[in-house]
Design a protein that fits this description.
Blueprint lengths: L7 H4 L10 H5 L10 H7 L6 H5 L12 H5 L6 H15 L4 H13 L31 E7 L2 H5 L4 H14 L3 E3 L9 H5 L3 H15 L3 E7 L2 H10 L7 E3 H10 L12 E4 L13 H9 L4 E3 L29 H12 L3 E4 L2 H14 L6 E4 H8 L1
Helix pairs in contact: 3-6, 9-17, 13-14, 15-16
Amino acid sequence: MGVEQGTFVQKYDLLGCIQCGRCTGGCPVTSRTELNVRRIVYESIDDEKLEDLSNKPEIWDCTTCNTCAIRCPKGLEPFEVLIGLRSMKAEEGDIEPTARDALESMFNNGNPWGKPAAKRTDWMSDIPGVKKVRILSEGEKADVLVHVCCTAAYDPRIIPLAKNLVRVLEAAGVDYGFIGNEEKHCGSEARRLGEEGLFEYFDEENTELFSKYEVNRIVTISPHCLNTFKNEYQNLNIPVMHYTQLVAELIEDGKIDLKGEIPKKVVYHDPCYLGKKNLVFDEPRYILNKINGIELAEFERSKERSLCCEGGGGKMWVESSSKAERLAELRIADAKNLGAEIVAVACPFCLLTLEDAMKVKGFEEEMRVADILELLGEVI
């Protein structure tokens, strides 16, 4: 369901905007695109301008990284205005074919990658040291219900993250389980691409699905799933946490023995949806500092100021309107200048975008990008 004219001012509290420009001043993609968040928010007050604004290609450059909301002195969320404008185009079916295909696959297959739902658990085979991954039956109890995320279930580069999480949980003796092939997309990217109706569908479907199991908490691999379940679902009454929060807890409780070592200089990249959106900064660093041999460095732009990789906000399915150097490439260049040998991440999208940027920059021989779950897999 799109956003109708006449509701914009009320829905996004546009009259609360004081036009200070801090949103645009802090927006990471402003430096490489035509996006001007302040101007779009200002012009959205006029109903007659909404259609023209929704046709601007730069509204699709926003990664919904939350920087504008963090910087806003009035507590507004300017990026939501851009999502509202996108919803007007989605309502008309007037969006890029790649985004349209992803949305259709979400509805038909429960994932945006065009993969069959019946193969969602194929990744569970051939996990070292694990005979069989536990799939919960309806009504079954478990302390932890793991939501895999579509990318970790299907993308060959990301599947090892899910496998390593199972190894960690097994090693720590966690009472855990998975949903199986009934697991669906969280709906995060559906909403960011403007399909609010599809997001509401996933909200209802997944809330009902989760309620079939007696679990104490839901753990996600993706920060995007974390944010959606925790902050955007209307009636989900189960605590949700990111895997880094659970792993940090397990290490602190002495349930994981990190036997190996990684004698490398590592810099941690804060994923926007884990850090800026949910303030999870300490746990990933705590884990990395507990791995023997790691020398942990910090980006100048870290934590609340972390530089977005441009993988969020539906950008995995929408090309940028600008051909300027991508933020992920700037991030990799920063890592190189720090002398980092590993760029550690805690998000599937960050892993894919930063690894691609590393290849573009030609730094494969000097550094690698690795999710924390991959590093854990090397030392447990």
